[in-house]
Design goal:
Distance between the termini: 25 Å
Radius of gyration: 39 Å
Strand order of the largest sheet: 2-1-5-4-3
Strand content: 15-25%
Number of helices: 21
Shape: elongated
Structural class: alpha+beta
């Protein structure tokens, strides 16, 4: 109790009350004995009793004075120092009081000098790094807008950098993340030899790598004058590969049957022609030749029909035909029309289709100009209708349909704004399309219809997410190699996944289960804002209203969500080789480690509750809300008691505790686990 740390307040109060009680009880017994022995009267008797009670009273009053003037100020000072170590810019809620009031000016001077030194150091650093910051900003902007997926890995094949295009290419892939191994993202067996034999002068090496159901064309380059960093440029070659091995291969296979049927048809026709010039022709021979001609003609017609469908499929699978959202097309078209009086108002339900967006915009602009000249209308309506394997793009105006001869003339118009100046008809054939005009059922409107290839896709495109605030961290290359002994790994070099769960209740051993898992990642002592795991789970039972009142999750929120045995393997893949972090980890691990999942979280576990308790044993309150207040951290609105929100707060709390651990010489995972084990008591074991 009286070690190097300040004793807990409850123990001090208990000891104080115990000593006071013993003194008062002893004084009462002693006073009664003296009273019976001497039998004093009046004032003497009062003095006797007061003198016997004075010892206990003095202990009680001195303890009260010490608690108010010394021990409470000491605890407030401890909280303030802990907050300043974690964040020197934190607010000052506990100025020295009681007998420590005289330290106030000195602490203010120390704090202000500390902040002033940090400000001067930050200013000097900013001035010295201004040029580098500008270059970095330009690099970040370039990487964000670059359409080519890029990956940069260090000598140990840990990801140092990836751009937005790479994130789109590997959308929802658990292996993409700063500090993660390239092995988790791409089949390393395909890259092993190439990575080991790359020349140091930056010369490229190319190879085709399978990735799930896609083929990726990978160009590898060793970064010159580096510590073995490798740049990977990726291209999705699946469509080209499918074209080479699919439609184009089938096109080559069609040539032989066409030649065979053509040769058979020509031979039969020549034989029949020769037989007709003879005087006597065998009817059987003539019928056989006619049957051959008929059979080969049908076969040739079928082959030509199949060839036409194959060419149509090749056109629809062309690299320039990509999925388009109709609302995006209409918006881009109106922006292209600019200040001209022409305008298209989208109506009806939007839909997906395939098309060459730049070519379609130029073609629609030309058609609108022709329509405006022909009809005298400047305001049109645009509608997308779903057909059988096709999507109909309609331009609508008040009036009568266009003659087909007029449309045929328009299709011969060259579009000079496009390379090689193709005709409108050429672009229609590229989309396996045509153009015709028809009247509406109301008899007052007409429309120009363009059928376009459909896309098996529903729902509007997701809203544009802001660029990732972190897509590179070159400091990862300076971390210990991944095969280094984890126990001796420095705390700031650890890859940490902070997680939290929400459950149907607190009685996990009596049937309560997980309904939500949230997690975020810390790499190189940086909390990655966008590298998250957030999943709802169907508990297979009703969520009690008392639990929903806390975390806000209802039965409707988890309806249709996957069960825990499906989600937990995904969460294990998200963790990868990281150390896991939680607040009161015993509860969350008990919630996840159920026999039905078949997944064991065997990695080291850090617990901010135990670490805080070990650092500040004398302070009360180590729950998440109290610690957030203690270290001047705040929950964003609506995130408290959500799995992801509490996981983020746990991660920020860890970063606040980190400098306090280092100040005590605790710098490795092994030392931290030993420290938190000292705070594990029977209550935790029961939990």
């Amino acid at each position: 109790m009286f070690g190097r740390k300040l004793p807990k307040r409850q123990r001090l109060i208990g000891l104080w009350l115990l000593l006071s009680g013993i003194s008062l009880l002893g004084g009462a017994i002693f006073a009664a004995w003296l009273d019976s022995l001497f039998q004093p009267q009046g004032f003497a008797r009062l003095v006797l009793w007061l003198g016997c009670f004075s010892g206990g009273g003095t202990i009680f009053l001195v303890g009260l004075l010490l608690e108010r003037m010394l021990f409470t100020p000491l605890r407030h000072l401890q909280v303030q120092l802990a907050r300043l170590v974690a964040n020197p810019d934190a607010r000052d809620d506990y100025p020295p009081e009681g007998w420590l009031r005289g330290l106030g000016p000195d602490l203010v001077r120390v704090r202000e000098a500390w902040r002033s030194d940090r400000a001067r150091l930050a200013t000097a650093h900013a001035e010295g790094a201004r040029s580098a910051a500008r270059i970095r900003q330009e690099l970040e902007t370039l990487l964000q807008v670059l359409d080519i997926p890029l990956l940069l890995c260090d000598y140990h094949r840990r990801l140092l950098l990836f751009n937005q295009a790479a994130e789109n290419l590997f959308a929802n892939h658990p292996g993409l993340g700063l500090g993660k191994r390239l092995d988790a993202l791409l089949p390393i067996s395909s890259l092993q030899d190439s990575l080991g034999q790359l020349p140091d002068d930056g010369s490229p090496r190319e190879l085709l790598v399978p990735c799930n159901e896609r083929w990726l064309h990978v160009i590898l380059r060793r970064v010159p004058q580096s510590n073995g960093e490798t740049l990977l440029t990726l291209t999705d070659a699946t469509s080209v590969w499918n074209s080479e091995m699919g439609a184009r291969a089938n096109l080559a296979d069609r040539v032989a049957p066409l030649r065979r049927h053509g040769a058979s048809l020509a031979s039969a026709a020549e034989a029949l022609g020769s037989a007709r010039h003879t005087r006597h022709i065998d009817d059987t021979l003539r019928r056989r030749l006619e049957a051959v001609i008929d059979e080969e003609s049908r076969a040739l017609g079928n082959e030509i029909e199949d060839l036409g469908r194959l060419i149509e499929d090749m056109q629809q699978q062309g690299e320039r035909l990509v999925p388009l959202w109709s609302n995006d097309l209409w918006q881009s078209l109106n922006e292209r029309l600019g200040d001209r009086p022409l305008e298209v108002l989208p109506i009806g339900m939007p839909a997906w289709f395939k098309g060459d967006a730049p070519a379609l915009l130029v073609m629609l602009e030309a058609l609108l100009e022709r329509l405006s000249e022909h009809t005298g209308t400047t305001h049109f309506e645009g509608e997308i209708l779903l057909g059988n394997r096709r999507v109909y793009l309609d331009l609508i105006w008040p009036g009568s349909p266009l003659p087909q001869r007029t449309l045929a003339t328009w299709c011969e118009q060259n579009l000079a704004a496009l390379p090689l100046s193709p005709r409108i008809g050429d672009l229609l054939r590229q989309h396996a399309s045509d153009a015709w005009s028809l009247a509406d059922d109301d008899g007052r409107h007409a429309r120009l219809r363009l059928p376009l290839p459909a896309v098996d896709r529903v729902g509007a495109p997701p809203s544009q997410l802001p660029p990732r605030p972190e897509f590179h961290d070159f400091g990862i290359a300076d971390l210990p190699p991944p095969d280094a002994e984890l126990a001796r790994c420095p705390l700031r070099a650890l890859e940490i996944v902070a997680f939290d769960t929400e459950t149907t209740g607190l009685e996990l051993r009596r049937g309560d289960t997980v309904i939500s898992i949230g997690a975020c990642r810390i790499v190189n002592s940086r909390l990655l804002a966008s590298d998250i795991f957030d999943a709802r789970i169907d508990p297979g039972k009703t969520i009690p209203p008392t639990s929903s009142a806390i975390h806000g999750i209802t039965d409707d929120d988890v309806a249709g969500a996957p069960p825990l045995p499906v989600i937990l393997p995904r969460f294990r893949d998200y963790i990868g080789d990281a150390v896991i972090l939680a607040h009161n980890a015993a509860f969350d691990l008990l919630a996840l480690q159920t026999p039905s999942t078949g997944v064991i979280l065997e990695m080291p576990v850090l617990d901010t509750l135990l670490i805080s308790r070990a650092l500040d044993e004398s302070l009360d309150g180590h729950d998440l809300d109290t610690l957030a207040e203690r270290y001047d951290l705040s929950f964003p609105p609506g995130t408290r008691h959500t799995a992801l929100g509490d996981a983020r707060m746990t991660a920020e709390l860890w970063l606040a505790l980190l400098p306090r651990l280092e100040a005590r010489g605790i710098e490795t995972l092994e030392q931290t686990l030993a420290l938190q084990a000292t705070a594990f008591d029977r209550e935790d074991a029961c939990t």
